Amino acid sequence: MLEVRDLHVYYGAVHALKGVSLEVPQGGIVTLVGANGAGKSTLLKAIAGLLPARQGSIRLEGQEISSRGAEGIVAKGLCLVPEGRQVFGTLKVIDNLNLGAFLLRGGKHQAKRQELLDYVYDLFPILEERQNQYAGTLSGGQQQMLAIGRALMANPRILVLDEPSMGLAPLVVREILKVLGALNQKGLTILLVEQNARAALKVASYGYVLETGGMAAQGEAKALLSDQNILKAYLGG
Amino acid sequence: MEQYTLATQLVQYLIAGLTIGSIYAMVAIGFNIIYNVTEIINFAQGEFVMLGGLIMATLCHWLGVPFFLVLPLAMLAVTGIGVMLDRLAIRPVRQPTVMTLIMATIAASILLKGAAMLLWGKDPYDVAAFSGRVPIMFLGASIQPQNLWVMGILGVVVAVLTHFFGNTIVGKAMIACADNPSAARLVGINVRRMVLLSFALSAGIGALAGIVITPLSLMDYDRGAMLAVKGFGALILGGLGSFPGAVLGGLLLGGIESFGAGLVSSAYKDVFALVFLLLVLFIKPSGLLRSGAVAKMKRF
Question: Is the CATH number 3.50.50.60 carried by domain A1-77+156-179+188-237?
Answer without folding.
Answer: no
